[in-house]
Amino acid sequence: MVALLADAVRKNLLDILSVFLYILIIKLFVLQSICLGVKQMKEKLVQINKTLVEVYDDVNRIEEISIKSGSFSDLSITEIHTVEAVGLYGSKTMSEVSAALEITMGTLTTAVDKLIKKGYVERCRSNTDRRIVNINLTKRGKLAYRIHEKFHLDMVEAIMLDFTAQEEEILLIALSKLNKHLKDIYMGKI
């Protein structure tokens, strides 16, 4: 009887040990899968970051080449973006433009001085409050604005030729989410 009881205990211990080893193997497999998943996720994040940086750099390079090889080769990227911020219609105050560009008034004043010398912008004081300085584009400035705007539209149109309607929609949603997240996460900290 004792021998039967000892055999039953041994069998139960072996069954318990087998179950324990089985659970341990599953846990190790799950842990390995998680580690692989984390590694793959990290690799994916690195690839996404690399692609975002590459796209940003490429657009800047293409834009710079376009400006330098075009009719407005005397403008820098910063200057053409200042022209963009001034806008086509009416005039804006220096404060409005500096806020839109997120630069200081001193930096904008330097940029506007250069653009005035080059014939793209005009500066005038407000008739109602002489402390307020308004700026607006000259005819040459408006032409530069329109050509730069066309450059961007042409670039996006050329890119989108390779996309299906569904891919365009997915890209638009993804870019909107990216833009929102960047603003939500980082713009409040600056």
Structural overview:
The chain has 190 residues and is mostly helical. The chain has two domains: 1-38; 63-161, Winged helix-like DNA-binding domain superfamily/Winged helix DNA-binding domain (Arc Repressor Mutant, subunit A). The protein is 76% helix and 6% strand. The protein contains six helices and three strands, in the order ααβααββαα. It has a three-stranded antiparallel beta sheet with strand order 1-3-2. Strand 2 and strand 3 (133-137) form a beta hairpin.
The rounded distance between the terminal residues' Cα atoms is: 80 Å
Kindly report the average pLDDT value.
Answer: 80
Q: Which architecture of the largest domain per CATH? A: Orthogonal Bundle
Kindly identify the CATH topology of the largest domain.
Answer: Arc Repressor Mutant, subunit A
Task: Record the strand order, biggest sheet.
Answer: 1-3-2
Order of helices and strands: HHEHHEEHH
In percent, how helical is the residue content? over 70%
Integer count of domains? 2
Structural class of the helix and strand makeup?
mainly alpha
Shape category: elongated
Using only C-alpha atoms, the radius of gyration works out to: 31 Å
Using the coordinates above, name the CATH class of the largest domain: Mainly Alpha
Number of strands: 3
